[in-house]
Design brief:
Helices cover 41% and strands 15% of the residues. By secondary structure, it is an alpha/beta fold. The chain has a seven-stranded parallel beta sheet with strand order 3-2-1-4-5-6-7, sandwiched between helices. InterPro entries: NAD(P)-bd_dom_sf (IPR036291), SDR_fam (IPR002347).
């Protein structure tokens, strides 16, 4: 990991969903290295405890909390646990999501409930839980939604429809919540990665092959190239930025 200013996010408490692996794990490590206290939320508690131990050994502050985004009735208790251990949450990173590779006319109702529940309904309700506490306490805050370039461009993959719909809705959620909560000094922003090296991408490659040679720069970028966007959106530098989704796609998609 590149060296980060260890004081950039000092005094901040970040809750990162889907932090047991992939981009969520990386985002948690990046925020901790910049001085935030981080609550790593995921279903795999054994994995998040291992990541927390690594962050602590590196001089950061991190705790693990269990979170299943398909069970909104547990959200209040999850946020309570994070706040009891670290203090009031000032930054929520809605990163968790599930990929889905089935053609639209073969999507089952159960699978649709799972994907929409995890990728959209869960982040919306968790944002309302965290945002509601910020409003009640009169505290400013930040919510960062991890969307996808598939929210804006058809990927050419006939099995990406349901996933793309949820990510497009997440981008729209960013815009409307930013308007709703601007007066409360809650910035709601998003980032839309293109194709980067990740566990999710590795699964796609195993199914359909490596797309690198078809991309303008002939590569799948390293996820470290997302770090600066995340830090910008969570730092004082972006205080006036709300309601926007920053596209980070290495030139992969046309405009």
């Amino acid at each position: 990991m590149r060296q980060r200013d260890p004081h950039l996010l000092e005094g901040q408490v970040a809750l990162v969903t889907g932090a047991s692996s992939g981009l969520g794990e990386r985002f948690a490590r990046v925020l901790a290295a910049a001085g935030a206290k981080v609550a790593l939320a995921a279903r795999r508690t054994d994995r998040i405890e291992a990541v927390c131990a690594d962050i602590t050994a590196a001089g950061g502050t991190a705790v693990g909390v269990r979170l299943d985004l398909t069970k909104p009735e547990t959200f209040a208790a999850t946020v309570d646990e994070a706040q009891d251990k670290l203090g009031p949450v000032t930054t929520l990173v809605n990163n968790a999501g599930v990929p889905y590779g089935v053609r639209p006319h073969k999507v089952s109702a159960a699978d649709a409930d799972l994907v929409i529940g995890t990728n959209l309904r869960g982040p919306f309700l968790l944002s309302c839980e965290v945002g509601g506490r910020m409003i009640a306490d009169g505290r400013p805050g930040r919510i960062v939604n991890v969307s996808s370039m598939t929210a804006f461009h058809y990927s050419g993959t006939p099995t990406a429809a349901l996933y793309s719909v949820t990510k497009a809705a997440l981008a729209r959620m960013t815009e409307v919540l930013a308007v709703e909560w601007a007066r409360n000094r809650i910035n709601v922003v998003g980032m839309a990665p293109g194709m980067f090296h990740s566990e999710m991408m590795a699964g796609m490659i195993s199914r359909v092959g490596d797309p690198s040679d078809q991309l303008p720069r002939g590569r799948l970028p390293d996820p470290s190239l997302l770090d600066s966007t995340l830090l910008y959106l969570t730092s004082p530098a972006s205080e006036a930025v709300t309601g926007t989704v920053i596209k980070v796609d290495d030139g992969q998609f046309g405009r």
